[in-house]
Design goal:
- The structure is a single chain.
- The protein is α/β, with parallel strands linked by helices.
- The chain folds into 2 domains: about 10-155, NAD(P)-binding Rossmann-like Domain (Rossmann fold), CATH 3.40.50; about 155-275, Dihydrodipicolinate Reductase, domain 2, CATH 3.30.360.10.
- It is built from 10 helices and 11 strands.
- It has a 7-stranded parallel beta sheet with strand order 3-2-1-4-5-7-6, sandwiched between helices. A 4-stranded mixed beta sheet has the order 9-10-8-11, covered by helices on one side.
- α7 (about 155-170) runs parallel beside α9 (about 215-230).
- The longest helix has 15 residues, at about 155-170.
- Pfam families: Semialdhyde_dh, Semialdhyde_dhC_1.
- One of its GO terms (biological process) is L-arginine biosynthetic process.
Length: about 280
């Protein structure tokens, strides 16, 4: 248990992308946290305040090359890195009592054969999966508190699972015909140079992408199967909209015949209000 005076020491691996800077911004207002190190190979020695002027006066830190021995001095280490980085370093950290929170996808899918198929690389952390909890607190809060490794959900899965899980848990909808239509802003693609993300390409445009299969689909299906105990058929199509950030997901599901008459719009509204009554959002 942390005392009132003792702050949680946090390290961030990969702090120069959109995810890293958003994490820095959120942690800046957390009264129980102290960010003690932040890493970036490309920006080694650069002050955080020089790269992000909006954080001037908040962080007196410089980016540094990742050093596992220094990271072991933290209480919690966040990974805001490309896929594959967290799994290569997590074991050394949790062996030293450091909690790991991966904001990438290394631990999101429990079936590693499925993970390898969708992410196109070998998963080197099979022995770590028993220490992993999926980081959707509305459904895994108690397990998250005890987890050594937390797998932060993907953006689309967060919005879609929160929308459909109340109906699935209550057994109210058919599991054979769920459709999710997701729309995301361009920052979700990260900072990497990409012609499709240029302003001239995406401005005043609206398009579907990864129509033949998106890697967030198996992540969502795995969690839906876990809740229902039976296979769930999900059709998921993501779309890119001309805005910097934000996400909107529309989910279509068919009520089961034996409940369709009694489940009025008011009853469904009540179900959602009761499910999330104690949640911050």
């Amino acid at each position: 248990m942390q005392s009132n005076q003792e702050k949680i020491k946090v390290g961030i691996v990969g702090g120069t992308g959109y995810t890293g800077v958003e994490l820095l911004r959120n942690l800046a207002s957390h009264p129980a946290v102290e960010v003690t190190m932040i890493t970036s190979r490309s920006e080694d020695g650069v002050a955080v305040a020089d790269m992000y002027p909006n954080l001037r006066g908040i962080y007196d830190l410089q980016f540094s090359v990742p050093n596992i021995e220094q990271l072991k001095t933290c209480d919690v280490v966040f990974f805001a890195t490309p896929h594959g980085v967290a799994m290569s370093m997590a074991n050394a950290l949790i062996e030293n009592g450091v909690k790991v929170i991966d904001l990438a996808a290394d631990f999101r899918i429990e079936d590693l054969a499925v993970w390898e198929k969708w992410y196109g690389m070998t998963h080197s952390g099979a022995d770590l999966m028993t220490d992993v909890v999926y980081g959707l607190p509305e459904y895994y809060r108690l397990r998250i508190k005890k987890a050594k490794i937390i797998a932060n959900p993907g953006c689309y899965p967060t919005s879609i699972l929160l929308g459909i899980l109340p109906l699935l848990k209550a057994g109210l909808v058919e599991t054979t015909s769920i459709i999710a239509d997701g729309k995301s802003g361009v920052s979700g693609a990260g900072k990497g140079a990409n012609v499709a993300m240029l302003g001239a390409e995406m401005s005043e445009s609206f398009k579907a992408y990864s129509v033949n299969g998106h890697r967030h689909q198996p992540e969502m299906v795995e969690k839906m199967n876990e809740v229902t105990g039976i296979p769930v058929d999900l059709t998921f199509v993501p779309h890119l909209v001309p805005m910097v950030r934000g996400m909107e997901s529309t989910i279509y599901a068919t009520l089961k015949p034996d409940v369709s008459k009694e489940m009025t719009q008011e009853a469904i509204q009540t179900l959602y209000e009761e499910t999330y009554a104690s949640e911050p959002f």
